[in-house]
Write a structure and sequence with these properties.
The chain is built from eleven helices and 21 strands. The chain is an alpha/beta fold. The chain folds into two domains: about 200 residues, TIM Barrel, CATH 3.20.20.10; about 130 residues, Lyase, Ornithine Decarboxylase, Chain A, domain 1 (Beta Barrel). The strands form four sheets. Strands 2, 3, 4, 5, 6, 7, 8, 9 and 10 form a nine-stranded parallel β-sheet that branches. Strands 1, 11, 16, 17, 19, 20 and 21 form a seven-stranded mixed β-sheet that branches. Strands 12-15-18 form a three-stranded antiparallel β-sheet, with no helix packed on it. The protein is elongated.
């Protein structure tokens, strides 16, 4: 696939077939009749929320997960009909939007329950929500020590239905299992408490990608697949178990737009941080840190040109990056440069880039900016 003809030659290719295959692979790992929520928050981890959700819905996805109400509205306006769950809840001003777009929020604050109940009463409707319990992540959620009191207080809301209970794991991708097992026990106790206090939630979900992979006892009847669905595995799933056959969904490419030969002793880039030690062939690519090719890759990253690694030399600029193709004598202007993906039997993974940048693969793919066009393909 070639880049858009009216755009500079830097683009990302998104394999919708890999995405849907990954979804099905992960769903097959679930126990019993558990359903699988496809998490498409943060623009589907940088892959494009609307197009990914459309492909997943066509492939039979059970649920969609977003972080923000705004992200849920985007899916609804694009015609997505399956349940859309707002993992991060909602703001006080967004109660009417929850109703208007038929979204299902996580709920963990009493003032937000009051707000949502009031808006539902105004509309003459009953709104489903999932109670979020903090079993050890320490971010959002009702602390387990306060759960019983919180649940009792929910009984006064006639226009809300507690239809699910959820939590989030902090360390399911780790080698040690004790903390996740503790969270699972706390969650099971939380579900029991909710039921003992008179509620009958339909849905119970705790497992993220890592929990789905490593803790079958956490599957409940709904699990949430995020990063693994996009083919990210090495820093997503626990190394204790074999990795399922998942394919990376994103490939990121650019092209050589200028090629020059410079003598030994030539400084390159801002700050002259790289000086050639030999006569060198230097290629310029129209991609930089404003596109998500991070500045920390200066003088340490690499790309693929003609099936060989070409090191980044000099400081990565906002819009341009230079690479050394001296050892690729056939390289010429117009050649494709792979920033993320495979070429000629070699590969640069999101995990590779993350390791060089001292981060995680999630940040790599979500960091590919909106000015990089996504091209969607079914292969």
């Amino acid at each position: 696939m070639s880049e858009p003809s009216l755009h500079r030659p830097t683009w990302a290719e998104i394999s919708l077939s890999a995405l849907t295959e990954n979804y099905r692979t992960l769903k097959r790992q679930l126990t019993g009749d558990a359903q699988l929520m496809a998490v498409v928050k943060a623009n589907a981890y940088g892959h494009g929320a609307v197009r990914c959700a459309q492909a997943l819905e066509d492939a039979g996805a059970d649920w969609f997960g977003v972080a923000l109400v705004e992200e849920g509205i985007e899916l609804r306006r694009a015609g997505i009909e399956r349940p859309v769950f707002c993992l991060g809840g909602f703001w006080r001003t967004q109660g009417e939007l929850i109703l208007a777009h038929n979204l299902i929020p996580a709920l963990f604050r009493m003032d937000l329950a009051e707000e949502l109940n009031a808006r539902a009463a105004d509309a003459g409707r009953i709104v489903n929500f999932h109670l979020k319990v903090d079993t050890g992540m320490g971010r959002l959620g009702v602390p387990v020590s306060e759960l019983a009191e919180f649940v009792r207080a929910l009984k006064r809301f006639d226009h809300l239905k507690l239809d699910g209970v959820m939590t989030h794991f902090a360390d399911a991708d780790g080698i040690e299992t004790a903390y996740t097992e503790l969270q699972i026990r706390r969650f099971e106790d939380a579900v029991s408490t909710v039921r003992e206090l008179g509620f009958d939630p339909t849905w119970r979900h705790a497992a993220n990608s890592a929990g789905l992979h490593a803790y079958s006892q956490s599957h409940g009847n709904l699990a949430r697949a995020g990063a693994a669905m996009y083919g990210l595995t090495l820093d997503v799933l626990s190394p204790r178990l074999a990795t399922p056959p998942l394919r990376p969904v994103m490939v990121w490419k650019s092209r050589i737009v200028m090629l020059k030969t410079v003598p030994a002793g030539t400084p390159l880039g801002y700050g002259c941080s790289f000086i050639t030690a030999r006569e060198s062939r230097i290629a310029t690519l129209p991609v930089g840190y404003a596109d998500g090719f991070r500045r920390v890759l200066s003088n340490r990253g690499r790309v693929l040109v003609r099936g060989q690694f070409a090191p980044v030399v000099g400081i990565v600029s906002m819009d341009l990056t230079i690479v050394d193709v001296t050892d690729i004598p056939t390289a010429e202007p117009g050649d494709e440069a792979v920033l993320l993906g495979t070429q000629g039997g070699l590969a640069i993974s999101a995990e590779d880039l993350a390791k060089q940048a001292d981060t995680i693969s999630y940040e790599v793919v979500t960091g590919v900016s909106s000015r990089v066009p996504r091209l969607y393909q079914n292969r």
